[in-house]
Amino acid sequence: MSAIDDMIAANERYAAEYAPGRPQPVLAIVACMDARIDPFRALGLHYGFAHIIRNAGGRVAEALRSLAISQAVLGTREVAIIHHTECGMMAPADEIRRLMSAGLGREVDPSLPLLAFNDLDDSVREDLEVYRNSPLVRHDIPVRGFVYDVQTRRLREVTA
Fold first, then answer.
1. pLDDT reported for residue 14
2. Exposure string for 130-160, b = 16+ CB within 10 A, e = fewer
């Protein structure tokens, strides 16, 4: 059985137990797509409470459209930006580009912004600044940045 077949079977079990309700999200979270992080368990979230926007590195620049929709259309009122230790995006961009090219079997466009970084706290501060400078998102709500330690599973707030 493939991983996708396993996913479909799990969905069938989930659908049999599901009690639908209208989600009323309060919080939007931008986090890395790293599979070691389960935002629901790690952050104590329950269904419908948060929009979780995930991408490589948890970068805000890639999440702005989703954040804007989350806030303006769906009503979220707070934002948490969460990067994490041992992140694969914490490497030189040319190294990530080389790995991508090798994995794809073709050269990756050198103009593709990879949003790699070398310092966790600085990357969170950069993303807070990207958020603050964006005309797409709300500026009248709390926006805070964190680093999640994959070993201890604890959050640490990063101050601007």
1. 82
2. bbeeeeebbeeeebebbbbeeeeeeeeebee
Tell whether domain 27-158 is in CATH 2.40.160.210.
no
pTM, full prediction: 0.89
Burial code (b: 16+ CB inside 10 Å, e: under 16) for 72-87 equals: eeeebebbbbbbbeeb
* Spatial distance between the Cα atoms of 34 and 56, rounded to a whole number of angstroms: 7
For each successive 10 residues of the chain (160 residues), what is the average pLDDT?
91 80 86 95 90 98 98 96 97 94 95 95 98 98 97 94
C-alpha 96/C-alpha 98 separation (Å) is 5
The residues spanned by each domain of the chain are 27-158
